[in-house]
Design brief:
The chain has a domain of 83 residues. 52% of the residues lie in helices and 10% in strands. A 3-stranded antiparallel β-sheet has the order 1-2-3. β1 and β2 form a beta hairpin. It is elongated and about 75 Å long. The protein starts with a helix and ends with a helix.
């Protein structure tokens, strides 16, 4: 009978052992740091620009580039000089095949002297890819 009690005690003890606290439910597809940083998440679109005789690649902003554009817009508004907004956006989004910007911030004015039709077309694509709308531009002009 003593052996029976041991078996029941051992069986009972095994049944009440809690699962380790470190075991947690992990959602399917949970990304780690490496996966996030390696993800090719910056979309681009090649836009025909017949006025210039070719195609211009317009890329989505990185978060840092978006912040830079918004800071530029606020600064321009505070100075009362909210000109070349189309050229400023296109300059920050036009990239080469390797994804490097074609124009620096200091070249916005020169780019702004180019065809309004061409810049409007590129601005529209840059706005769509980066979720920058005409309303956003108007809000930046007002604030």
């Amino acid at each position: 009978m003593a052996a029976r009690k041991k078996t029941r005690a051992a069986a009972g003890a095994a049944a009440v052992v809690p699962a380790p606290a470190a075991v947690a439910s992990v959602p399917a597809g949970l990304l780690d740091r490496s996966a996030i940083l390696a993800a090719p998440d910056l979309a681009h679109e090649d836009v025909p620009v017949p006025e210039w005789g070719g195609v211009v690649r317009i890329a989505a902003f990185s978060a840092a580039a978006r912040d830079s554009f918004e800071l530029w817009a606020r600064d321009a508004h505070q100075k009362g000089s909210f000109v070349n907004v189309r050229a400023a956006l296109v300059a920050r989004c036009a990239v080469d095949a390797a994804g490097k910007r074609l124009f620096s911030d200091s070249e916005v004015e020169v780019l702004g002297a180019k065809s309004a039709a061409a810049l409007d077309r590129l601005f529209e694509v840059a706005g769509r890819l980066n979720r920058v709308t005409e309303g956003d531009i108007e809000d930046l002009e007002k604030n």
